[in-house]
Amino acid sequence: MGMEALLARLTAKYLPMAHTAARDLFDGSMPMEDLRQEAALGLVLALTEQLAEGIPGAESEADIDKDRLRESVRSHLKMAMADEAALKKEDDRLVAQVELLSESINRLREELGEKPTVDELANDLGIQQAQVIRILQLMGEDIGEQPSEELDIEGMEERFKTFYKS
After folding, report:
1. Do 98 and 62 reside in the same domain of the chain?
2. Number of domains composing the chain
3. Which terminus of the chain has a lower count of CB atoms within 10 Å, N or C?
4. What is the Cα–Cα distance from 157 to 164, expressed in whole angstroms?
5. To which H or E segment does residue 99 belong?
6. Closest CA to 11 of 60, 65, 55, 48
7. Over 60: is that where the pLDDT of 68 sits?
8. Which pLDDT band holds residue 90 (cuts at 50, 70, 90)?
9. Of 89, 74, 95, which is closest to residue 18 (Cα–Cα)?
10. Contact present, 7 and 59 (Cβ < 8 Å)
11. Listed residue (98, 87, 90, 88) closest to 159, CA to CA
C-alpha cells in the first residue's frame, strides 16, 4: 500500500476521534464547522508526522500512537482557537481605530469647513500618516499617491461597515 493510500485510510479511521476532540474543545469562539476542519487538518498533519518518522511496519494501524495522535490534534485545535482569538482582538482594535478616525474626519470637516487631509487627520489623532492611510484603505478609500491630498470620504463608513459584515 502506498503512503497516500495509507494516509487516506488512517485519516478516515481517526477522523471521528478528531471530530470528538473538536466537540470537546468547542467554546463558541469559532464556528463548529471551522473547528472540525481544523481537527481534520491537525489529524492529517499528525499522521503525516508519525508516518514520516519511518515507523517500522507502518502498514499497520497498530503502529500509530493513538494517544500522541489525539494530543497532536488537540494541540492543533488549541493553536487554531488562539489564532482565531488573536484575529478577533485585532479586528476589534481596527474597528476602534476606524471609529476614532471617523469621529476625527467629521470633527475636522466641521472645524475646517472642508474635507481634512491625511496630514491633518494624523496630527489630530497623534498617529503617523501611514497608520491613517492604512485605516482609510481598510475603509475602502482610494487616497491616491499624495498623502496630504483632500480625501473623498463620502460613504467611507458605509463601505467599511458593508465590508466588515461580510
Report:
1. no
2. 2
3. C
4. 10
5. helix 66-112
6. 48
7. yes
8. confident
9. 74
10. no
11. 98
- Residue 4 to residue 150: CA distance in whole angstroms: 58
Range of the domain at 137: 89-165
- Identify whether residues 126 and 106 lie together within a single domain: yes
Residue 77 — φ and ψ, nearest 5°? -65, -45
Residues 100 and 56 in one domain: no
136 with 66, same domain: the answer is: no
**Residue 94 maps to which CATH number?**
1.20.140.160
Q: Could you tell me which residues come within 8 angstroms of residue 44 by beta carbon, excluding any fewer than 6 positions away?
A: 7, 11
> Are both 113 and 146 inside the same structural domain?
yes
**The last residue of a domain, from among 20, 53, 86:** 86
Residue recorded with cell 494541540 = 75
Per-residue cell: 96: 476602534
- In this structure, what is the dihedral angle of CA atoms 38, 44, 49, 51, given to the nearest 10 degrees? 160
pLDDT at 60 exceeding the cut of 90: no
Among residues 81, 74, 60, which one has the least CA distance to residue 20?
A: 74
